[in-house]
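Summary for the steering committee. The consortium agreed at its last meeting that each partner would contribute one worked example illustrating the joint modelling workflow. Our contribution is presented below. We chose a case with several input lines so that the handling of multiple components could be demonstrated. No manual editing was applied between input and output; the record is shown as generated.
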Amino acid sequence: MTKKDTVLIAGAGVGGMQAALLLAEAGYEVHLLDRAPALGGSMPLLDRTFPTNSCGLCFMSPDLPAYCPFIECERHPNIEILAYAEVESLEGEAGNFRVSILKKARYVDPKRCTGCGDCALVCPVEVPRELGEGLEKRKAIYRPYPQAIPTAYLIDREACTECGKCLKVCRAEAIDLEMEDEHLQLGVGAVILTPGFQPFPAELKGEFGYGRYPNVVTGFQFERMLSLTSPSHGLPQRLSDGQTPKRIAFIQCVGSRDPSQGRGYCSSVCCMYATKQAILAEERAPESEITLFYIDLRTFGKGYDRYLEQARKGYGINYQRSMVSAVKQEPRGKNLSLSYVAEDGRPREEEFDLVVLSTGFVPPPGAEELAQRVGIALNEYGFCQTTEFAPTETSRPGIFVAGAFAEPKDIAETVAEAASAAANAASLLGREAIKVKPPKEYPPEREVVDEEPRVGLFLCRCGEEIAQAVDLSQLRGFALGLGEVALVQEVDYACRPEGLQEIKEAITGEGLNRVVVAACTHRLYEEEMRGSLREAGLNPYLLERANLREECAWTHREPQAKAKGLIEMAVAKARLLKPLHKPSVEAQPAVLVIGGGLAGMVASLRLADLGFPITLVEKERELGGNLRHIHYTLEGSNPQEFLRGLVQRVESHPGITLFKGAEVVEHQGLGGSFRSTLSLDGEEHMVEHGATIVATGGQEALPREYLYGQDPRVITQRELEARIATGGGIEGTQSVIMIQCVGSREEGRFYCSRVCCSQAIKNAQRIKQAQPETAIFVLYRDMRTYGFKEEYYRRAREEGVIFIPYDRDRKPQVIPGPALRVKVHDPILGRELHLEADLLVLSPGIVAGDNGRLAEVLNLSLDEDGFFQEANPKVAPLDSGRAGIFLCGLAQGPKSITESISQAEGAAMRATAFLAKGHLEGKVFLPTVNARLCSGCGLCVSLCPYDARRLNEETRVAEVIEILCQGCGLCAMACPNGATQQNLYEMRQVMAVVDAAL
Amino acid sequence: MKVEKFLEVKEGDTLAILRNFLQRLLEKEIVEALLVPLEAPSGDTVMPALVKEPARLEKANPLAPVMPVNAARLVSSLTIGKPKEKIGALLRSCEIRALIELVKLQQAHLENLMIIGIDCLGTYEVTDYAKLLSEGGASTTELMRGAKEGTLSPHEGYQFRSACRICEYPIPKNAALTIGLLGVDGEKILIKAPEELAQRLELTEGEAASREEVIKKLGEARIEERDRLFAQFRERVVDMPSLLAQFSTCIRCHNCTVACPICYCKECLFRTSTFEHESDRYLKWARRKGAIQMPTDTLLFQLTRLNHMVTSCVGCGMCESACPNDIPLTTIFRAVGQEVQAMFDYLPGRSLEDELPLATFKEDELTELGER
Amino acid sequence: MNEDFEPKIVAFLCNWCAYMGADLAGTSRIQYPPNLRIIRMMCSGAVDPVYVIKPLLDGADGVLIGGCHPGDCHYQEGNYKARRRVAILKNILHQMGFDEERVWLRWISASEGQVFAETVTEMVEALKEKGPNPLKELWGT
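What follows is the complete predicted structure of the assembly.
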């Protein structure tokens, strides 16, 4: 049976979009489906994300610079969007599935709907808006949010009263109440499930009063409230009276870590989202006094502990380790009284103006049906079942999963997992499924540079959207008077095939050599319109757009004068347009992977399976890195067996050239064509490759405190694990004390290593299993068993492991002697405890390897903790910031085995998307340099953010490295005499437009 | 480690001892060529010359109170191609400061260059100097007397260039070797040099007791004059008509850009094809306002030049000296520059370490700008 | 304040944030005064001072430069560089007797259609308050 070569992605949130963009960029065809009527999942709710407090979502796209992934998905020729659709059934097997899709009726024809919104204005029905959990209202005919993609409106038939008002105002005649659901049959090779999550229904926690007390809101509502586009313009607001609250309480773990609600897991992100919201609230309303009630602060991601510290110190947010038992409303002022047990053990009540419930994640709507329909297993909580060493594989081969549906998680991990799922899908389909479409045949480009400009102006009526507001016949007369305008022609829809054909014919018929299309925003149909020029034998960049719709007809009651201005500006620009071509360089389809630990091996195998020749360099004589020291896991898998399998596969893979005991000493060139030198036993080897993956790992820190190295009874968790695994050393041990966060999460090493809490619990459990009578104390600052690991923390407590929290300022003290004595302040008992231990086990955390030299060789930066710096901690954790160099594993920061695997596969996918087309395409907005004018001052070099400008020492002319240039135009601005000009934004062109604007 | 030593002046002939000193630099191969002002064959001015032959230094006159060109421009020409021989350049403070800016702008290199700084006693316009010479004024003795006391007043009936009148930095910084005249006894010249170099130059001991005080006094007087001019400027330029009045006589001859040591563009933007307009365009503009000034773009040129230049302007005033229509460019650039430079705590020519304000940014600066 | 006076504003908006905000104002049908002529640039940092000075000398009543919020620039830091250049420009204009409040720099994100429209409205109001750019009438530039 032949394999199908497309991928279905179910769920178009951040993970789905990431997987779609990567696969599409690599050349695979993708169907991107979502139950919701628009793309985006939970992302439209967030306009600031931690820890950068910016959006930055655009950095996610594999081809930068880019718009929001929403728009990039819509624009990508390899992505077909199926919004408002569900998977009905799935049959077949990996490589060849038959999927039946239900495309729900929108009752508005997306092909006709211009997104004008007249319908919603007249619709009399208001219902709570989904975005922001009903904080605002929407109409029965609606768009989920203003920038929604697809842009078309839809009717909520449950709310609709069929009054028919919208039908009357819709000029595009797009509304069709008779519309029926459609059923589509697709043949796909692989499926990726990324349906995300939904917030825990806070009303289930009746004691907090959500739904009854107006001033109790969920974190998701508060998130919306803090958005600058919210009704309060980003200010915190009490729903009872619209006042800005002063005293705000956050209650953490609402619907998380709560077995009574069947939610025994941690939702992983709430501590951070609450902290972010607290910071934003302080910024917007500096008078706010904010208290956050928590059990453990789980700010374990990269840079998150520093963020938390900033919230405490910089913004004065009060973190209170207490469980809130109840919220009561004071009836008159509608203030809220919180009952909790303070750290001194006494019950207390405190009044607040607003309470935010940090609700956790539960499986997405329809998860069970979806699982049944596609035949995958769910876990006890209803999330998708996966395994530790195959984090993106579901129980059914060929169906992959990523993001919160597999386990609650943050955007950074979702993005990496989505890339990993994409890698799995890609390798299932194979490289042969990549469609290298033969370039479309066009007539040869006509030479126009020496011709006098003959501008053709096409005035799009846009149905009547433009024509009704703007007097086009008057514009026509005006434009004909502008000089060098050879033709003015009205078209009904410049975007539709007939319109495009009219444009093409007019170009040929009238001998036009510049074209202005006055229609909608340039973001729409630009490629199609350029295509018309190309088909008529004109260079596609001889096109200029005037936006008569969004900039004019839709925003002004008297748009005529402005319309004239826009036409004049566009014609002025068009006259001066020049033919342009995008630069293209060949990409070497080979990858250098640095580091032969878990991440490096996984990445190598993925890429080698996809047919990319791999050079894998490991500095030690043996593969495996840190994984060699991990003998068992919390979840009970066998890492050594897994490791043996990996090593065996790597060593025998014909596509992998392995260098053990070797180092990369030189790394030159640009993404697409690197040339590196490896040093092995004093001999040098040259490698040519198009991409590089950095997977150099990290290491367990060496404790300097608590008598480590002085007393043989003090060991690290890793040493304990080795003892347990080899069966020596713990027999007869009466008492084991574990100290967490040794040397970490404090000055000097202000970050969390993510894995130590799980490591401690896994070792404690092993000891308990072997010797139930052994007393085990874990002294911790915050137990960070995020996600489903929480379950093991709970079990460990049940098994009698005793957990005692301590403060950064009141660390345990270890007193040497015949018995090791440990003094620690127990905040619950409110006194000092004296414990004795036969064995003191320290969790010193993970530190970066010796990355400095390699960073220099690769010309990459390290973060303040010595790990490799990613391009964006949230949405581009696998990119280094240098094109063609990708990061994964401990080299980028501490992480678990599972996370390393998904990052490694994800990095492999980023590399695949980068190299698969065989060439790299540059931007058209390139700077050009007039060498005669250039003085070589280097201002352009210092302002270029991409190292795309370089001063030629010989000629003293600043050159352009075209393939690195992203087309921002900073260099042209920096150039004092216009020696550098940016294509399409030459100074002459801009000045002409400025002049026409007056 | 720099030391302060002295040259003994014999029979009051300061110029002779300076010439001799410069000759020694060449003879001892401390430098292999010297850029110094020589008295021109015409006899009415000095011009910088690149000297290889020590005998030519008989005509050297570093004391001549005239500055036909800011020699930083010349050092740029000499060093941009990285000379193979070591060149000594005798420069005034404003020339050194301009040179430092040019180095940052990659228009000059310091390798194989020895900067010899000399105290500046003020300069006349070229034409004034010629006239003064013909009248027998501007004698070295007269100059040196003023230098000793720090009362640098021009010859009666004459004025120093406006830039010099408000110059707070007559003392060179960042020089390898400094020739000090201010506050030094008339029988001596101060030489500040690295110890090893000072030894080779056979200098004598001594001290310039009043130097610091004299410099301070001079600086204060200059600042007072500067602030007076700035205040006048700020009173004068308050609105659009007064803005126009400043530049109403500009004919965009570009003399200022040619004279300016910092204006490094090979060809000024305003001379490139970007500013060659079509006839239609002129007519359209004339139609729009009823009349347009010809040549066009003069104010645009001046304001753009301010934008490009003012962060690096060292205030040498060559632009004003070059202006055929007496636009008070020195005051404009100095006054505007003072505020703009202060925004970034930048002093042009102060140090090679300070980044050019136009080449960098800070995330946490100007945070109000852009916010609602 | 002259009610009949309609200020002319030239706006340079970055392609990724501010222009998208303007676009969103359009798709959201938010009404704002039509006094603005938008020139879309790739980045606010690419706005040459000449582009701002030229229209002002030719009689434009105001110039608006719109970029991404700090931290959100598509070109990493173009908006910070723009901010510095605009600060220098405004300072120079001010010192030279030109009313620098006719030049606005504003951060507008792609989701801030409302903010964009409000900014235009505010700017038009502010310029009406100021009255026409005197250079509209003066020929000596």
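The longest strand of chain B covers residues 2-8. The two ends of chain B are 53 Å apart (CA to CA).
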